[in-house]
Amino acid sequence: MALTVKYDNPQLAPGEIVGAGGIALTNGESVDVDEEAETLFVETNGKSVEDFFANDPHVTVSGSGTVPTPEPESVAEENTTITLPGEEGGGET
Question: What is the domain count for the chain?
C-alpha cells in the first residue's frame, strides 16, 4: 500500500509548495508516495516517511510504508588499528 502525505500549514498560502525530506508538498493538498519514492526517501533521510514527519504538526501521513528503515551501522563491530610513523610497525610502506 502506498503512503499519502498531506501538508496543511495555515500560515502559508494555499497551493504554496514546500520541500520536506526530498518530497515536494503543496500546502493544503496530499501527495501519494509510491514504493520507489519511499525507497529513495529512506535511503536519503535514513528514516521512514512516518518517522521523519512524526513530530511535524502540519503533516499527516496515512497508509502504511513498505520499505524497512535500515539499521544503523555499528562502528564498534570493526576493530581498526592505526599505527603512526615512529611507532612500532609504522612509517612508510
Answer: 1
Q: The domain containing residue 59 runs over which residues?
A: 3-69
- Buried residues in 33-62 as b, exposed as e (16+ CB within 10 A): beeebbeebbeebeebbeebbeeeebbebe
Q: How far apart are CA 52 and CA 37, in angstroms?
A: 14
The structure's pTM equals 0.69
Q: pLDDT tens digits, residue range 7-33? A: 999 999 999 999 988 899 999 999 999
Per-residue pLDDT reduced to its tens digit, 40-57: 999 999 999 999 999 999
Question: Looking at this protein, which amino acid is placed at residue 55?
Answer: N
Identify whether 93 is part of a domain. Answer: no
Whether residue 91 is contained in a domain is answered as no
The identity of residue 83, as a single letter, is T
